[in-house]
Amino acid sequence: MIPNTDVEDTDDNREVVEFVEQYRHAMEARNPGQILRLVSESYYDDNGTPTTEDDIDYGLLQERVARLAEDVIEVRYEMRYRRVTFRSDRVVVDFTYTGRFKVQTAEGERWARRLADNRLELVRENGEYRIVSGL
């Protein structure tokens, strides 16, 4: 297994985990530009619901990611990789994350915590991975 993961240690799996680690580091750095460089312009996420009200495309994602640097003071973002699955048209990365976010509120600074399972979907564009869903 790749250390600190549940993922088999292969060259392909290591490449995927190393790519997603770039995203994790960009989150902790609160760097919107770095995050968006990892995302495909064809990004689309329906958030697993049948309605379109909560769907996120690349344009809306840009707006949300920009707020990360504005609204959040500090981020601690941990990921436990559970599975990497190669499909014909994409790679699916299942993981559990713990996000701790220090935010400024009217009452002052406070920490918020989120623990959840998630799935990123990746595609190859010009020979490099890009995120197409799951942020």
Plain-language structure description:
This protein has helices spanning 11-28, 32-37, 58-71, and strands spanning 44-45, 56-57, 72-86, 91-105, 108-125, 128-133. With 135 residues, it is α+β, with helices and mostly antiparallel strands. The protein has a four-stranded antiparallel β-sheet. A two-stranded antiparallel ribbon has the order 1-2. The longest helix has 18 residues, at 11-28. This is SnoaL-like domain-containing protein. InterPro entries: NTF2-like_dom_sf.
How are the elements arranged and paired?
Layout lengths: L10 H18 L3 H6 L6 E2 L10 E2 H14 E15 L4 E15 L2 E18 L2 E6 L2
Antiparallel strand pairs: 1-2, 3-4, 4-5, 5-6
Tally of separate helices: 3
Structural class: alpha+beta
H/E element string? HHEEHEEEE
CATH architecture: Roll
- Sheet-strand content, in percent, reads 35-45%
Assign an overall shape.
globular
Query: How far is the N terminus from the C terminus?
Result: 25 Å
Helix percentage range: 25-40%
InterPro entries: NTF2-like_dom_sf
Organism: Sandaracinus amylolyticus
Protein name: SnoaL-like domain-containing protein
Brief description of this entry?
It comes from Sandaracinus amylolyticus. Helix content is 28%, strand content 43%. The protein is of the alpha+beta class and 135 residues long.
Question: What are the key terms here?
Answer:
135 residues, alpha+beta, Nuclear Transport Factor 2, Chain: A, two-stranded antiparallel sheet
